[in-house]
Amino acid sequence: MSDPRFIRDDLDSCVSHVIEECGELLAALGKSQRFGFLSVNPLLVPDEQEVNANWVLREIADVRSAVDRLEYAMGWMCAFERAALEAAVHNSGRRTDRSKPRRLAAIRAFLQRSKSRFI
């Protein structure tokens, strides 16, 4: 689990965190499959030993947390993009070219489709 002092919420950091946590989960699963889910790491001091199954569950929780942060960051990113597109639709009303109605319809259709996918 990450120290909250070092967590950044930009999209690249969130993606990196998911990748890192997935790697830790893979390591826990690999060791558990190789040595058994009920075994412990004998190299750890007794106070730090835990059954491999608990290690896997802890790593699953970390992956879920990282994925939740990524989904939140992506939702905000999509909301900002949608706001920019809505502003473009509003501002495009000032133009006088013939392609404006088609462009507005295409942007509005995109916005309607993206609402159900991202937020």
List keywords for this structure.
119 residues; mainly alpha; 3 helices
Describe the structure.
The chain is mainly α. The protein has three helices and no strands. Helix 2 runs antiparallel to helix 3. The two termini are 27 Å apart.
Basic shape = elongated
Which series of helices and strands comes N to C? HHH
Q: What is the residue-averaged pLDDT?
A: 80
Beta-strand content: under 5%
Radius of gyration: 23 Å
- Helix amount, in percent? over 70%
Going by helix content, strand content and strand pairing, the class is mainly alpha
Question: Sheet with the most strands?
Answer: none
Low-confidence regions:
none
The rounded distance between the terminal residues' Cα atoms is 27 Å
* Strand element count: 0
Counting DSSP H or I runs of 4 or more residues, the number of helices is 3
Write the layout of secondary structure elements.
Blueprint: H1 11-35, H2 52-92, H3 100-118
Helix pairs in contact: 1-2, 2-3
